[in-house]
Design goal:
The complex is a heterodimer of chains A (340) and B (290). With 340 residues, chain A is an alpha/beta fold. Chain A has 8 helices and 18 strands. Chain A has a 7-stranded parallel sheet, with helices on both faces. Chain A has a 5-stranded parallel sheet with strand order 15-14-16-17-18. Chain A has a 3-stranded antiparallel sheet with strand order 8-9-10, with helices on one face. Chain B has one domain: Rossmann fold. In chain B, the strands form 2 sheets. In chain B, strands 9-8-7-10-6-1-4-5-11 form a 9-stranded mixed sheet, with helices on both faces. Classes of the chains: A alpha/beta (340), B alpha/beta (290). Chains A and B meet through helix 3, helix 4, strand 7, strand 9 and strand 10 of A and helix 3, helix 4, strand 7, strand 8 and strand 9 of B. Strand 18 of chain A pairs parallel with strand 13 of chain B, so a sheet runs across the interface.
């Protein structure tokens, strides 16, 4: 009762990184609240294959639902599992990835349980809340903090009266780390048919095709990102040369993606990937709020921009005021000359 | 087979084109400074609905929206593109709704419409970006759902075959009707407005959109009943006021603040060879790169 739950998403028998990131966050919240961290995973032939990808992140109890047709994911069976499990367990918090699956499953579960759900949170904290209308005071609520209105404001949302308090978080927003403290690491394998009705399996997946990511933008130590200021797709391609010599990855702002300079999966920002590299080189990026939200936690930020007043320069450690056409070849040249 | 299709559409502030005056000095959103538009992914959904109507003779497409009286514009824009009818849910009791209360209101309206084969809407609206309303409507109606759809490939023997976008790939699924579908922005764009339909429906309004003192076109409304759009209150859809609006919303907004980024002390460099080389050397010396 009253524990923190994380729904773990899988592809085949691989637990998704976003779920591990949420387990790390969930462990911290559970410690703060003095409760346990529980995890739930559902798939087909996963017994013995997923446990070690989940338990090290500080899980006290893991519920593994292993049954035919639980992978690929469809809405109804996974909803049934969570809804019926939550009726038994009555968790106070449930976290899931703001992925295609999490954003399909979360609202369906929250609607079934009439509990509140906040999408795409960028921070989760524990705090108190006073309802000014009713005069009621609540301790230890989950603050679900998220950008709204295209990233122009940040709202803190609470669910005072309904449980569980549900939130989804995008991949890369939290950071995963194996838990060093004590935890129970119990694993149970509930009977799937006790949770999922036979009628739930009506939607059939005829074809499921997933390609491995072509790049590791999220985990790259050095990110070279370009904006609309790169001028053209050809101009943008210069960034791949710079990223190659620096052993980094290439990202783009929404404006660059919309202009067709780079692929959508390289978009950095609130509606794209969130990155935390050691070095972030922003080339021809003006720095709209929604872009900055996806890279502000980078170690060193270098901005290359012909406009000395570009908003991104305010959060940059180094600002090179100049055109990308002039500066980027020089960065490549002097890196090659000076590195071993 | 003929299909009864309801398109869920929302009038939203255009958050993609936020100008300098979009935020007030107090850091709140100045809605008046943002143009109100048809939510982009709802247009993708409307296109899928209109294609189904063309492929399945006898089908009808209706646009369901919730909002203040001026959201009647969304129904008109649907009619201009080929929808047959529309419903505006408008009532002060609907105000302040979070996604769950919104879904409740839409689901009660869909029940009132009755015998719907397909409910289709955009994946998410650009003012909230939550993607929650589609699945919540489906749950409230006890229907199957297919989210992130890119194309409805076919409807045969009461089963829809749908291609959908998933993380890192694509999926093709089969779902029996009735079904709730949400459409991704990568789906086909919506057809433009049709000039003949614009002429036909340009005076179409909900009663609450009309000024109390009357309009010069009042005679038209009597002659042409299709120019009066359906306008429903909580009572009209047999809704429970406690599940609508702020009262029916489990989530509460504790605080809203403007985003202020911590400004750093930056070092400004020129694009000269000397400056660029010294920066590279500094980063290499401190083992930040290399």
């Amino acid at each position: 009762m009253n524990n923190v739950f994380v729904y773990c998403e899988i592809e085949g028998t691989t637990v998704q990184e976003v779920s591990q990131e949420l387990l790390t966050k969930g462990r911290k919240l559970a410690n703060q609240l003095g409760v346990e961290l529980h995890a739930v995973v559902a798939g087909t032939d996963i017994k013995g294959k997923v446990e070690e990808q989940i338990l090290p992140y500080g899980v006290d109890k893991l519920f593994v639902f292993d049954g035919k047709d639980l992978f690929p994911y469809t809405s109804a069976p996974h909803t049934d599992i969570l809804v019926n499990l939550f009726k038994e367990e009555e968790p106070q918090i449930c976290l899931m990835g703001a992925t295609v699956i999490g954003r399909d499953l979360g609202p369906r579960v929250s609607s079934s349980l009439t509990s509140g759900l906040t999408a795409d949170c960028t921070q989760l904290e524990i705090g108190e809340y006073d309802d000014l209308k009713t005069g009621k005071h609540f301790d230890n609520l989950l603050y679900q903090i998220r950008p709204a209105f295209g990233g122009n404001i940040v709202a803190t949302i609470v669910n005072p009266e309904h449980r569980p308090q549900m939130a989804t978080v995008r991949s890369g927003v939290m950071q995963k780390s194996v838990y060093e403290g004590e935890c129970r690491k119990e694993v149970v394998y509930p009977e799937v048919s006790k949770y999922v009705s036979a009628e739930a399996y009506v939607v059939k997946v005829l074809d499921h095709h997933v390609e491995a990511a072509k790049h590791n933008l999220k985990g790259a130590p050095i990110v070279v990102a370009g904006g609309y200021g790169m001028g053209s797709k050809e101009g943008f391609d210069m960034l791949f040369d710079l990223a190659k010599v620096l052993h980094g990855e290439v990202g783009g702002s929404r404006a660059a993606v919309d202009a067709g300079f780079c692929d959508h999966d390289r978009q950095i920002g609130q509606t794209g990937v969130t990155v935390h590299p050691k070095v972030y080189i922003a080339c021809g990026i003006s720095g709209q709020i929604q872009h900055i939200a996806g890279m502000q936690d980078s170690g060193i930020i270098i901005s290359v921009n012909s406009d000395p007043d570009a908003p991104i320069n305010k959060i940059a450690d180094y600002v090179i005021v100049g055109t990308v056409e002039e500066v980027i070849p020089k960065l490549i040249k002097y890196y090659k000359q000076n590195s071993k | 087979m003929s299909l009864k299709i309801v398109v869920l559409a929302k009038q939203v502030p255009d958050t993609r084109n936020v100008g300098k005056d979009a935020m007030t000095a107090e850091g709140t959103v100045n809605r008046a400074a943002l143009p109100a538009i048809f939510n982009p992914e709802d247009l993708n959904a409307l296109e899928q609905a209109l294609r189904l109507k063309e492929q399945n003779p006898g089908s009808t497409v209706g646009v369901l929206t919730m909002g203040p009286p001026r959201a009647g514009e969304i129904i008109r824009q649907g009619l201009y593109r080929g929808a047959d009818t529309g419903w505006l849910l408008t009532d002060r009791l609907f105000a302040g709704a979070d996604t769950l209360a919104t879904s409740y209101a839409l689901a009660t309206a869909i029940k009132k419409i009755g015998d719907v084969d397909i409910v289709i809407g955009g994946r998410q609206a650009i003012d909230g970006d939550t993607a929650q309303v589609g699945p919540q409507v489906a749950q409230k109606l006890g229907l199957n759902q297919v989210t992130y759809a890119e194309e409805i490939l076919k409807i045969e023997n009461g089963v829809a075959t749908i291609r959908r976008h998933i993380d890192g790939g694509v999926e093709v699924v089969e779902a029996p009707l009735p079904v709730v579908i949400t459409v991704n922005g990568s789906a086909a764009p919506c057809r433009p407005q049709n000039a003949k339909l614009v002429m036909k429906y340009k005076r179409a309004t909900c009663p609450m959109e009309r000024p109390a003192e009357g309009t010069p076109y009042d005679y038209l409304y009597e002659e042409r009943p299709y120019l009066t759009l359906n306008q429903w209150s909580v009572a009209d859809v047999d809704g429970d006021a406690n599940q609508c609006g702020l009262a029916g919303s489990p989530t509460k907004v504790k605080a809203v603040k403007n985003i202020v980024f911590q400004a750093k002390e930056s070092k400004t460099l020129s694009p000269s060879d000397a400056d660029v080389e010294s920066l590279i050397k500094e980063l290499l010396d401190e083992k930040i790169i290399g």
